[in-house]
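Renewal narrative, Specific Aim 1. Our central claim is that a sequence can be written position by position from structural information alone. The example that follows is taken directly from our test logs and has not been curated for this report. It begins with the structure tokens describing the chain, in the order in which they were read.
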């Protein structure tokens, strides 16, 4: 038997015919949980999940519908299963969708969020400010993804000297939450200025590790500021809520703590120029005010200063005159005292022929009756002295 070989087009047409001819696959309702929801050109793309499987869905003209599903919603979708030949994909084309209640996984996430919120894990008062300029940045993400390359490129473009420390972890799958938590603890001990927890976008299942109680609590316990850059801007995770700040993308996280060095220099120069202008203005105003004040002082005090100068001059002449009189009086008195001293000078008397008599011990002898015969005495003259012996004494009778 000859083996049949089909072209891709032939087998694709055959598969599509099977889908279109099977009435079971048309105008049916499927119940499941919405995940990985996104919109493009008014159409919505999402996944309906069951307990063991999932199916891709396309919801046309979603902007015209009353109800728009969101991740975690449990929905009943009406439509048909078809095979899209160009992409080789099986999809459920939705024509209508209604809520059927909240999905179990999403409900558990909201319950966990509410419990952690009541404990204060997400409270703004516990959050710390980010450093304006991080010199050492810790990053917790996959070592092989585009995320770490985007962070390194952005950070080093802004400031080439920044030190980036990577703690490589899994970003999804079993055990990834524990790896991320351990990375946070390690970075908190490493002395970095800021910690960035990052990964790209993905479905709710892809982001599950960042929605765990383990990661949220460790983020809350970190003393080092933590930035969460997980998923797309429309996603939210418990990691985002517990972190000190959230960035829309990993690139934005790098820009938050490593500002552009060139722009920073320009801002500093601009600030210095503004300060110089302000200081120059202040000094100019102060100089003008001082000059004006001094001019006014001289105008007001000019006449008074001249009067004071005249009074000082007259007072000085008066003091000088009194001093001269006092000096002349002292000089005359001094001359008189010298005359008296000279007149009473013993040497002057001795020059007139008088002598000064003293006993053996040098005591003055002022009367003859103080002497006795044979006593030695000393007689001082103007030009010397002589020793004598008393031979005879004659006393005058008192008058």
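The sequence written for that structure reads:
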């Amino acid at each position: 038997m000859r083996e049949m070989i089909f072209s891709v087009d032939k087998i694709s047409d055959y598969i599509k015919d099977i889908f279109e001819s099977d009435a079971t696959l048309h105008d049916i309702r499927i119940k499941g949980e919405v995940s990985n929801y996104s919109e493009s050109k008014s159409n919505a793309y999402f996944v309906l999940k069951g307990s063991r499987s999932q199916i891709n869905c396309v919801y046309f003209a979603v902007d015209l519908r009353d109800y728009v599903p969101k991740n975690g919603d449990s929905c009943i979708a009406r439509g048909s299963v078809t095979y899209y030949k160009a992409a080789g994909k099986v999809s459920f084309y939705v024509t209508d969708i209604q809520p059927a209640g909240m999905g179990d996984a999403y409900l558990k996430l909201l319950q966990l969020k509410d419990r952690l919120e009541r404990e204060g894990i997400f409270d703004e008062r516990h959050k710390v400010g980010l450093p304006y300029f991080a010199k050492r940045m810790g990053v917790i993400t996959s070592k092989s993804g585009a995320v770490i390359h985007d962070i390194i490129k952005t950070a080093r473009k802004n400031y080439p000297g920044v030190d980036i420390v990577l703690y490589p972890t899994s970003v999804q799958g079993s055990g990834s939450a524990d790896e991320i938590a351990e990375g946070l603890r390690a970075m908190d001990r490493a002395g970095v200025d800021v910690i960035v927890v990052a990964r790209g976008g993905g479905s709710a299942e892809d982001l599950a590790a960042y929605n765990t109680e383990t990661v949220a609590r460790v983020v809350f316990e970190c003393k080092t500021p933590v930035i969460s850059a997980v998923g797309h801007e429309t996603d939210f995770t418990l990691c985002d809520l517990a972190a000190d700040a959230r960035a829309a993308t990993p690139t934005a996280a790098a820009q938050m703590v490593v500002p552009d060095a060139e722009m920073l220099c320009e801002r500093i120069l601009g600030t210095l120029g503004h300060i110089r202008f302000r200081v120059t203005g202040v000094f100019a105003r102060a100089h003008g005010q001082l000059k004006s004040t001094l001019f006014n002082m001289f105008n007001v005090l000019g006449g008074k200063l001249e009067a004071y100068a005249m009074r000082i001059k007259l007072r000085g002449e008066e003091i000088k005159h009194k001093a001269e009189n006092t000096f002349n009086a002292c000089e005359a008195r001094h001359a008189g005292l010298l005359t008296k001293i000279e007149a009473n000078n013993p040497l002057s008397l001795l020059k007139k022929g008088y002598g000064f008599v003293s006993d053996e011990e040098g005591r003055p002898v002022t009367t003859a009756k103080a002497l006795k015969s044979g006593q030695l005495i000393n007689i001082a003259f103007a030009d010397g002295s002589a020793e004598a012996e008393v031979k005879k004494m004659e006393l005058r009778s008192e008058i």
